[in-house]
Amino acid sequence: MKHPVRVKLEAGEKYLFCTCGNSDDGVLCDGSHKGSTFVPREFIATRTAESYLCRCKKSYNGVYCDGNHAKRESLKLDFLDS
Ligand code: FES
């Protein structure tokens, strides 16, 4: 299961959310997508806080975790991630 990653975000700062899933932490782009068709998703933090960013890439709450990874586990759908 791909749990969310807690990241300290600063209000007004621009971040690049990893959409390929290959970055080291799985949530912030580190350039690992190069050579693929994926591009990072830019977002600006609206508040300074520790936030849980989505790593399963199935959240309906943008870059933020909405708990969908846990729903997938309860339905035993993790084989779809491999
Ligand atoms: S490393 Fe995944 S989008 Fe850049």
Automatic annotation (TrEMBL):
InterPro entries: CISD, FeS-contain_CDGSH-typ, MitoNEET_CISD
Keyword Phosphoprotein recorded: no
Keywords: 2Fe-2S, Iron, Iron-sulfur, Metal-binding
Gene3D superfamilies: CDGSH iron-sulfur domain, mitoNEET-type (3.40.5.90)
Iron-sulfur recorded as keyword: yes
Domain Iron-binding zinc finger CDGSH type per the UniProt entry, residue ranges: 2-39, 42-75
Origin superkingdom: Bacteria
Name of the protein in question: CDGSH iron-sulfur domain-containing protein
